[in-house]
C-alpha cells in the first residue's frame, strides 16, 4: 500500500492565513485501477490564487471544502501505471493538490518533455504562471512599441515574464516590487526600464515620475494601494488585464473614502478597458506559448528565478510568506 | 448683420450645476466667407456628457473654457452659403454649441435627409445618443439570446434604445428608471421585460429578483448606488460598457466604505470586462446604424420619446433638470 502525505484545509481563514488553517494527514491510497496511474510528487507549486480557494465566495472556481486537500499543481513521476498512455518513469504535471502521492486517470495532466529544464519550470515560467503572463499580456494588454507597461510583483513568476515580454514587444517596462534587492534584480537581470519599491513613502510620486508618458497597460496582480497609484496615470485607451489582487486577499472592507466612483470616472473619461481573466480561458495558447517562451529562454531574452523550499510540511508557512511577498521568485516546494 | 444669441459657461460648477454657472450673450456674427455657411438653429440637444465639459478635469475632451459657448449639437437650417457643398434651406446637424446662429466651414457637420422624421430625431434616436446605444451595446456588450441586459435611465435616449436593441437580439431587457410613470412606459411601450424604480427603498432586492439568472450585460450610464446594486449580480464573463456616470457628475468624494476593492474582486473572480467608451470611437458604424435603426422604427420595433422645451433661454434649467432625471425622453430645446 502507498501512503500519501497531504495538507488539508482545516478551517477557513478569517483575515490573514494562519498555520491553524492547515492540517497534515496521511492516507493510504487504494490500489491503482485500470485506466489509472500513480504519481509520486517531486514539486508542489504555490500560487496566490490558492488563497481565493480557501474562502467560500462566488468565484470562477469552487472553494476547497473544509477538510479537503488544498488545491494545487504538482510535478511528479509516474510510479505505477495501468493507463495505456502513461509509462512508469514519465514526468507529468497536473492539479493533484498538496500531497506527496496521488492516483489519477490523466484528466488535466500534461507530460513534460525535455523543454522543461529544470523540471520545476513546468509550474513556473513554462507553466501556469508563465501562460498567465503571456496570454493576459498579449491577448488583453496588447502592448505596442513605445507604450508603457506597468506590473507589480515584478520579480514573481507572472510579473517578471510580463515585464520581459513587454520589452520583447518594444514597450517600456516599469516594475513594482518590495525592497531594494528585488528592485535591483529586476533592473539588472530582467531588464526592466524602471523599478519602484512599493514600500517607499513616496511610492506614488516615484511611479508617476517613472511613467512620464502615462501608463498604457497595467497588468493587475495586486490591487489595493498600488492600483490607487496607477489609476490617475492611465492613458486614453489603456488596458488593464486583472489577473490577481494579492494585496486584498486577506482584506477586511476598507473604511474611509469610496474610491470606486473616481475609478469609474477614469474608466469612462479615458476609454479604459479592464478585464478579469483566468488562465484556463487561454489554454489553447499553450503550444505557441511553450514554443515561444522556451525559445526566448534559450536566446537569453527571458530569465527566471525560483524560490524552492524543502519539504511538503513547510508548504503552509511558505505559502503564508508568499502572500506577504517574502518569496523571491517563483515559490516551489520540493516534496521529500 | 446676424446676431447670435448664445449661452456661455459663466463659472465652473462646484457640486450641482446652478443657473449662475450660465450666462446669455448676444454677439454679432462676422460676414460669411468663401467656404463657409450660416446655420440658423432649430433644435439644441441637451446631453449628460455636457456636464463633464463644465469641469476642468483630464478627459477625452477639452473642457469648455470659462466664458466660452457651451458645447452641444444643433439641428439647423442653412440660411446663407458660400460653401459649394451646402445650399440655402438644407437641414444640417453638428456641434455648433448652445446658440441660435453660427457660421461653419462644414467640419463635423452632417446633412439630414428624409429619414430624420421628425427632424429632432437627428440628435436623439437617430443621432449621437442612438449611435452610442447601438455601438456600445453591440460592439462591447455583445448581447446573446437568452442573456440578461440591464440599463438605467431606461426611458432616456440611450437607455431606451439599449433595451429595445437587446430585445431585438433575443436578450432579456431589465430597465431602471425613476418613478412609476417612466417604469410603466418602458414596460408597456418599449417592451422591457422588467422595470425597477431606483427610488424604491428595496431597489437592490427588486433588481436581484428581476435578474434570476444574473446579469450578462450592464450598460453603465449612471454609476453610484445603481452600480453598487448591479456588481454582485454580474455573471461570469459579463460585459460592462461604461458610457456615462450621471449619478456621480456632481459628486463630492463619498465617505464610508471603499467599494473599489470589492468591485475589483468581482471583475477578477468573474472574468468581467469593463470598458469606457465615447461614441466618436464608433463613428464609422453610423451608416449601418442609420439604416438599421430607421428600419426598426419603420417596423415598430423601436419607439422613442422626446421631451422638448421651448426657447434657448430655458436650456440651462432644462439641462439641470435632466441631470436630476426630471426629463421624460430625449431632452431637446426648440430654439425660437
> Would you state the CATH class of the largest domain in chain A?
Alpha Beta
- What is the percentage of strand-forming residues of chain A? 25-35%
How far from one another are the termini of chain A? 18 Å
CATH architect. name of the largest domain in chain A: Alpha-Beta Complex
The overall strand count of chain A is 16
The CATH superfamily of the largest domain in chain A appears as Medium-chain alcohol dehydrogenases, catalytic domain
Mean pLDDT of chain A: 95
The largest sheet of chain A, given as strand count, sense and whether it forms a barrel, is: 7 strands, mixed
Radius of gyration of chain A: 20 Å
Oligomer: homodimer
**How many structural domains does the protein architecture of chain A include?**
2
- The CATH topology of the largest domain in chain A is Quinone Oxidoreductase, Chain A, domain 1
Which pair has the most extensive contact?
A-B, 44 and 44 residues
Query: DSSP helix count of chain A?
Result: 9
Shape category of chain A: globular
InterPro entries (chains A, B): ADH-like_C, ADH_N_2, ER, GroES-like_sf, MDR_fam, NAD(P)-bd_dom_sf
Domain Enoyl reductase (ER) (chains A, B): 15-333
Protein name (chains A, B): 2-alkenal reductase
Organism (chains A, B): Sphingobium chlorophenolicum L-1
Amino acid at each position: 500500500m502507498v501512503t500519501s502525505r497531504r495538507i488539508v484545509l482545516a478551517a477557513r481563514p478569517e483575515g490573514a492565513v494562519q498555520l491553524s488553517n492547515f492540517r497534515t494527514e496521511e492516507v493510504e491510497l487504494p490500489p491503482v485501477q485500470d485506466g489509472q496511474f500513480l504519481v509520486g510528487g517531486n514539486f508542489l507549486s504555490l500560487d496566490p490564487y490558492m488563497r481565493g480557494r480557501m474562502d467560500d465566495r462566488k468565484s470562477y472556481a469552487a472553494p476547497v471544502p473544509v477538510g479537503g486537500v488544498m488545491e494545487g499543481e504538482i510535478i511528479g513521476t509516474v510510479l505505477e501505471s495501468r493507463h495505456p498512455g502513461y509509462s512508469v518513469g514519465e514526468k507529468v504535471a497536473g492539479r493533484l493538490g498538496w500531497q506527496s502521492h496521488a492516483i489519477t486517470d490523466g484528466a488535466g495532466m500534461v507530460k513534460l518533455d525535455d523543454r522543461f529544464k529544470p523540471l520545476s519550470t513546468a509550474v513556473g515560467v513554462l507553466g501556469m504562471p508563465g501562460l498567465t503572463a503571456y496570454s493576459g499580456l498579449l491577448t488583453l494588454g496588447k502592448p505596442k512599441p513605445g507604450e508603457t507597461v506597468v506590473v507589480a510583483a515584478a520579480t514573481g513568476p507572472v510579473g517578471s515574464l510580463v515585464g520581459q515580454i513587454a520589452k520583447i514587444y518594444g514597450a517600456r517596462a516599469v516594475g513594482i516590487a518590495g525592497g531594494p534587492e528585488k528592485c535591483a534584480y529586476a533592473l539588472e537581470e530582467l531588464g526592466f526600464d524602471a523599478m519602484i519599491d512599493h514600500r517607499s513613502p513616496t511610492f506614488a510620486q516615484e511611479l508617476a515620475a517613472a511613467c512620464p508618458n502615462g501608463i498604457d497597460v497595467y497588468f493587475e496582480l495586486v490591487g489595493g494601494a498600488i492600483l490607487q497609484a496607477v489609476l490617475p496615470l492611465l492613458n486614453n485607451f489603456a488596458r488593464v488585464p486583472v489577473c490577481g489582487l494579492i494585496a486584498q486577499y486577506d482584506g477586511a472592507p476598507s473604511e474611509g473614502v469610496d474610491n470606486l466612483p473616481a475609478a469609474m470616472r477614469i474608466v469612462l473619461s479615458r476609454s479604459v478597458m479592464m478585464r478579469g481573466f483566468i488562465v484556463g480561458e487561454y489554454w489553447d495558447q499553450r503550444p505557441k506559448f511553450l514554443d515561444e517562451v522556451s525559445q526566448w529562454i534559450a536566446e537569453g531574452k527571458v530569465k527566471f528565478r525560483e524560490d524552492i523550499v524543502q519539504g511538503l510540511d513547510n508548504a503552509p508557512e511558505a505559502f503564508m510568506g508568499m502572500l506577504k511577498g517574502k518569496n523571491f521568485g517563483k515559490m516551489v516546494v520540493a516534496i521529500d
